[in-house]
Amino acid sequence: EVQLVESGGGLVQPGGSLRLSCAASGFTFRSYDMKWVRQAPGKGPEWVSTINRYGSSRYYADSVKGRFTISRDNARNTLYLQMNSLKPDDTALYYCATQDGARGQGTQVTVSS
What we know:
Layout: E1 3-7, E2 10-12, E3 18-25, E4 34-39, E5 45-51, E6 58-60, E7 68-73, E8 78-83, E9 92-98, E10 107-111
Parallel strand pairs: 2-10
Antiparallel strand pairs: 1-3, 3-8, 4-5, 4-9, 5-6, 7-8, 9-10
């Protein structure tokens, strides 16, 4: 059974940083491209970033480019999202997902003073 468990969310002030983690199990993690998606209250899902299975190619939404960094550790079956210079507009439920659409429950990020 595919399991994706996100962690690392919380309340942070504008300009602050958070590092999200996504622990994967039940599938061959190193064989899958992975992505982060977020959903703000009252809005639809927004793609944030994708990393290929090797970790050699990374893609970002314009809204987070230059502030967020996606990475992965295939030995630990873990996906990461380093978020810097956070803004109130980054407030959302963040979840990781496989290229096939499996996703976790998400971790809440709230950016507020």
